[in-house]
Amino acid sequence: MNKETAVTFLCGNDELIGIIHHPVDDSLCTSGVLIVVGGPQYRAGSHRQFIQLARNLAASGISAMRFDYRGMGDSEGEQISFEQTCPDIKAAIDTFTQYCPAVKHIILWGLCDAASACLMYAPSDDRVRGMILLNPWVRTEAGIAKTHLKHYYTARFVDKEFWMKILKFEFDYGESFRSLFRQIRSLLNFNGNQISKNKNEKLPFQERMKTGFLNFTGKILFIISGNDLTAAEFTDMVSSSKIWKKKFKDNNIERYDIKNADHTFSKKQWKDQVSESTINWLMRL
Questions:
Q1: Which class for 196: exposed (0-12), middle (13-18), buried (19 or more C-beta within 10 A)?
Q2: FRET partner for 219 with CA separation of 20 to 30 A, picked from 95, 116, 131, 285?
Q3: Looking at the DSSP assignment, which residues form a beta bridge with residue 257?
Q4: Residue 154 — pLDDT band, cuts 50, 70, 90?
């Protein structure tokens, strides 16, 4: 097994904990992967995905670090949202490069709202040269309502079990129609009043993500699940935005889809595909 080092470091007055995974000769590794954790969870990841990914990276000759935000896992402090994690990411990069002095370039790796946090942070730090982003979180009430209507309810009509329930009189018409009505109401209620309410406040995180995406000049790999409403909401947002669509056509942007995978890539075959696509992309940088 490759060497693994437990580290503690400060973010403000709070002590955070992380694990650095070293390749056999980390003096040859000039790029390192910082695994940013989506919440609420800690540095092991769902189904131990982050542990396995970091070890695979080290075995392939790539330094990696995973860590807990303030208030998560074994780190101190009050629990924070992904919108408040820029100081934590910076402190982790500082520590990573301190323990791995050969590492000059950082690749941020994040799933769900960690991917969103990476997009918001990356342009502020010249050390970040690339990102690997899985199923970025862009949730709005209108967005998830639209996604449900487009993907979930459409899929139900071609689902054999759905029709079997109807034929056996086991289908709950009342609850289904109430659910459908709630989705339509959420979509219709997203109007100018909500936009003007936030006009003089800080930008919504979706806008900060877009700004980060537009301003980042490094390379990005998007890994998208084929069976996940969060991923579907992100792809729908991209397809409906001229700005996102145009940027996605840049040569430094790549996309890799994993058909049938759920949000956290819970099956071994899906985790293996994530790991392989991550390493293959890094080897081409």
A1: exposed
A2: 95
A3: 224
A4: low
Please tell me the pTM assigned to this model: 0.82
Mean pLDDT of 109-114: 97
The letter for the amino acid at 158 is: V
CB 190 within 8 A of CB 142: yes
Long-range contacts formed by 118-121: CB under 8 A, 24+ apart: 118/36, 118/89, 119/208, 119/209, 119/212, 119/213, 119/216, 120/83, 120/86, 120/205, 120/208, 120/209, 120/212, 121/85, 121/86, 121/89, 121/90, 121/212
CATH number of 4-139+205-283: 3.40.50.1820
The domain segmentation of the chain, as residue ranges, is 4-139+205-283, 141-189
Structure tokens that stand for 157 in this block: 């009509």
HEC assignment per residue over the chain: CCCEEEEEEEECCEEEEEEEECCCCHHHCCEEEEEECCCCCCCCCHHHHHHHHHHHHHHCCCEEEEECCCCCCCCCCCCCCHHHCHHHHHHHHHHHHHHCCCCCEEEEEEECHHHHHHHHHHHHCCCEEEEEEECCCCCCHHHHHHHHHHHHHHHHCCCHHHHHHHHCCCCCHHHHHHHHHHHHHHHHHCCHHHHHHCCCCCCCHHHHHHHHHHHCCCEEEEEEECCCHHHHHHHHHHHCCHHHHHHHCCCCEEEEEECCCCCCCCCHHHHHHHHHHHHHHHHCC
For residue 182, the model assigns a pLDDT of: 55
Q: What band does 273 get if pLDDT is binned at 50, 70 and 90?
A: very high
